[in-house]
Structure formats: C-alpha cells, structure tokens
Amino acid sequence: MAFDSLDDICAFCRDLPGGDAHAAKVAMRRQQTLTKPPGSLGRLEELAVWLAQWQGRESPRLDRVSIAVFAGNHGVAARGVSAYPPAVTAQMVANFASGGAAINQIAELAGADLRVVPIELDRPTRDFTEAAAMDADEFLRAVNLGYRTVPEDCDLLAVGEMGIANTTTAAMLCAALAGGDAARWAGRGTGVDDGGLARKRAAIDAALDFHRGILGDPLAVAAALGGRELAGIAGAVLAARKHAIPVLLDGFVATSAVLPLARLDANALDHCRAGHVSAESGHRDLLRELGLVPLLDLDMRLGEASGAGVAILLLRAALACHAGMATFAEAGVSNASN
Amino acid sequence: MAFDSLDDICAFCRDLPGGDAHAAKVAMRRQQTLTKPPGSLGRLEELAVWLAQWQGRESPRLDRVSIAVFAGNHGVAARGVSAYPPAVTAQMVANFASGGAAINQIAELAGADLRVVPIELDRPTRDFTEAAAMDADEFLRAVNLGYRTVPEDCDLLAVGEMGIANTTTAAMLCAALAGGDAARWAGRGTGVDDGGLARKRAAIDAALDFHRGILGDPLAVAAALGGRELAGIAGAVLAARKHAIPVLLDGFVATSAVLPLARLDANALDHCRAGHVSAESGHRDLLRELGLVPLLDLDMRLGEASGAGVAILLLRAALACHAGMATFAEAGVSNASN
Fold first, then answer.
1. Which of B27, B43, B44, B333 is the most buried (most CB within 10 A)?
2. What is the pLDDT of residues B68-80, one digit of tens each?
3. What's B80's domain CATH number?
C-alpha cells in the first residue's frame, strides 16, 4: 500500500485499525496472578498489556524489534539556526553505516535491527520562511518511503531521525499545529548559541506569518513546514498501525513528526508510547499536548532514536516479568488480594 | 573485615575511601570527543563518568554485576501494618530460589548475578513500639553478613530487599532520622487498606515517642528501629565503598537502609545512585533529602531490587555508548565545538 494523495492519508486516519481488547484483557488478568502485589510493577505492567493490545497477542513478544532512523536536510539551515553545518547529516549517516554512532551501540544492546533511511539528502527542503518546504508530491514520496520501511512482521518499531536544523522544523510544526509562537517551542537543539537561537525563533515566526493561510490543515502544514525525515517517520507510524505494530517514539523531532496525525484523529497515536522526554525544551510541552507520558527522563537530546532505543530495554524488562514470573498458585505464595 | 562495634562503623564513615578523580576526568574527556553534541546523551554520560570514578578505571566495565536481595522479618508486623502475612517473606525467598519472582527475570535480562540473603527469618525483630528491634550485636551481625555478601571483584552492586512490614520500618527510620511524623513517611506499601495505614502510622508515632532518647544517634536508630535486611543492605553498601564498587539503590526500603550512613557522613553515599523512585509515597521525599536523583520513575513499588535491576540496563546503555562510539576524528564528522 502507498498513499496516492493527502486525502488517502486522511481517509486512513478516519478509519484507524483498533487494538485487540481481548488480548489486552487476558494479559491484564495474567498480571493480577503474578507473585507481586497488584500494580507493584507500575508501568512495566501497563507496557506488557499495551504490547498485547497492539500486537494482538495474549503473550506478546519482542523477537523482532526494528529501529528506523530517517535522515533529511533542511533549507532553513541556511538561516544559521544550527550549531552544525548541513554536511553533518550525511556524515552522521555514514557514521551510522560504519557503526560508530550512539544508536548503533544502543540498537545492539537492545537486540534491535537498525535501518537508516536517508531521504534525498542532496535535495534539502526549501526554506520555509519564503516557500513551501515540500509540495504535496515530495511530501507523499517521503511518507510512502517511510511506510515501506517498516517490516510487516516486526514486533516493535522505534522511530528516530537525523537532520541538521530539524529542531527548527519540529518547533515550526508545533507552533503551527499546537499554537503559540516560536518562543514557546524553539530551544537550543544541538547547542546553538544566543544568536542562533534568535535566528531560529525569527525564522519560525516569519514562517508562521508567511504560511498563515494553511495552519488549519495538518497535512498541508506537514508538507509546507516539515521535513523529509519527519514525513518518513509519519509514514512509518501509519504502517505500524496498519500492521498492528506498537511504536516507541524518540524525542522532540520524532514526536513533532506525528503531531499532524494526532491532529487528523485524536486516536492516531494510541499504538505509540513516548520512549523518553528530551532535554530539548519543547518536548515536554508537546508530550503533554499529546497526552503521552514518557518512559524515560534522562536529559538526553541526541535524536537518532537514542531515547526510544534505550526505552526498548524497559519493554524487554516488562515482557520478561510478564512471561517469566510465577503465579501465586504456582509459587505457593499467600495472596492477600484473593 | 568485619565491624566489631558500632564505633567501628562510625570510624569507617569518618575516613571514607574517595573515588578516582583521574579516571573520571579521562572518561569525561572521552565523552567530549564522541560523535554527538556535547552533553546530548544526558545522564548516560554522567553515569559512564560515575562508573569510571568509582571503579577507578578510565574504561569502566560491567562484566560482573551483582544483585543482592536481603530478607528479614519484623516484629511490628504483628500490629497489622501490612496487607500480607509474615509467612510471605519466606515464601518469596523460596520463589527467588526457584526463579519465579520479578527480580529473577530482571536479573537475567540485565546479565546480573542474583544473591538472596535471608537473615534469620525465623527470628523477627522485636516490635519497636515497645522494645529495641535489635540490640547492637544483632544489628552488627546483620551488617557484617551484608558486608561479606559483596564479591570484592564485582563491577556494580544493586541492593534490594524483601520483608513483610518493612515499609513500616523504612518510614520509621525516615521519621527518626529525617524528621516529621508518621504521616510524612508512611504510605500504603504493598497495598494496605485505610485501617492498616492508620495502624502503621500509629505504630511509628508510638515508637518515635518510646525511643525519643536515641533519635540523635544514627546507628542506635538503625538498630532499635530498623530491620535485619536493612542492616544487611547498609553493610553491603559499606563493603562496596571499601572495594570501589558503584552501587544502585532500589526503592524506599533500600534507600532508608542507608539513611543512617548518610547521617554519619554526608559523602557516605557518593558511590551510590538511586535506581528509581518508587510509587511508595515517602521515597521521593527521602531521595530529595539525600540529594539523589532517580534514574527511573516507572511507578514501581515492588522492592526485591526490581527498580535497581531495571536501572542496570541504563548503565549498560551508558557504557555501550561510552566504549563503542566513534570519535569525531575517527568518523570524519565535523565538530561544531572544535
């Protein structure tokens, strides 16, 4: 399946596949029988049930875990909004390929397959302060590429990104779709100085004005104010919903990439959990906006799916307990709640 | 080494071994060269440096990780302060032995060796509302047992506990050594009802009054108002300091067990990190009191080192990045900070 038009995406989001309520119920019932006070494993219990619900399996599994990192370049980088030059996007993609980045180490530790998907790095999006970053066809191409990246049979997908200047793009999408101005959403990203931060905010506020006619249309915003790697993430998250695959979102950029989907349908992210909350200032605000409670809060702000990748370890812990623990009856332990 | 008297423990805490500042500096310098914006791995960077500091190794390792779970029984259980009967302590120790508990699954996932140390389960401490829970000799015996439990050559120690009624004991130690009354520290533990919670608070307030003469003496408090498994934890944490082993503390009970050490010397817990913050209400307050920032906040409240065990996974992620990532120079990535 691929989306032929923005309307196709809207139609998909109007008729989203639901989770498996029965599998969730069976998993929840099992949690009540395990040798621990009810609820005492906290979010590990909830995660096991969530995996059951979205995998549609009473006994969820994490045999095949996929991490997808999308990369793109951004016209707005020319406005001096990042501490790093745009060439770093391709350099980091090469670093991913040779195994030297943080996400390579984390993926190996988490037992996950890493797919890196650079999207037309030699064709940055247009500078959105003075044009549409992408037209509908360019946007759809990236969405469809993201959609096709997801292995239909994987048990969990973690999504992240790499793209110099893309916290500017993320803040742009948030300002356009969640309200407020640049000051609410733009932070220091990879570590921009005061001058860079001022330029970042000026670019976003200028673009809010330039594109004011489309701000009510989530997909028009995602195309005109977004980025290719963000579109790829949105496509991957849609594919995961289609194939009943639970998703861990990474940080500020990855979460902003799916904000347009949440604006199309309030339940569009039910199969997603926030792997972590980033130190990038807008992320906590965005997660609150989306009703997502992050699994980790470690002051990370690297992107490249690093936070979501670490959160995979928590899912493994949740599942290890869910599958491996003895019940009160099996262990001969007195159960106060019976 | 064993402690022959409470004074021996005081003397040890007056002359604590420090960390290795040079190893920490080398590790910190390496972090600055890795292919990521400086600081962008957040606490994962800090954890790698902390491991280097306390292992005294420029390249820290986690080849041998030990989880120690101490178990004990409590006279105060007779006051109806828990949702479970005291027999559950031994039943859960049997469950640990047969591999059915949460910590068994978590230890295996985290690549850790699990040691379960039941301490005189058939001899509960005395009810501290009307007597000293332990005399100095009983207390020292448990401390020394905990001390000897720690393998001198392990790279990391995680400590936890099992003991019906021991959140009452933990709240007791907090009230005695950190101030406030029972209402500040006593929560629902494994899930006690309103009547049980009232009895729990009444027992603590009664004991505060009964023992008011010793509240200024941390070790006297640890003996008279503590528990054997808590004393074991304190001993293990002292041994870890002696052998340059960093420590992950588990939840409310494990943290309360080392509060007496922190009262002997403000730096006594520098080699410790809080694995998580428990859902048990007093824990967040206690961590703040100790200046410890928890690594995880997952609404867990099981004890048995489960939160610290999950946090081992974060240390593995920190170390994987620290050891495995390429430097900017190795990867040919442009570094804005140079």
1. B44
2. 999 999 999 999 9
3. 3.40.50.10210
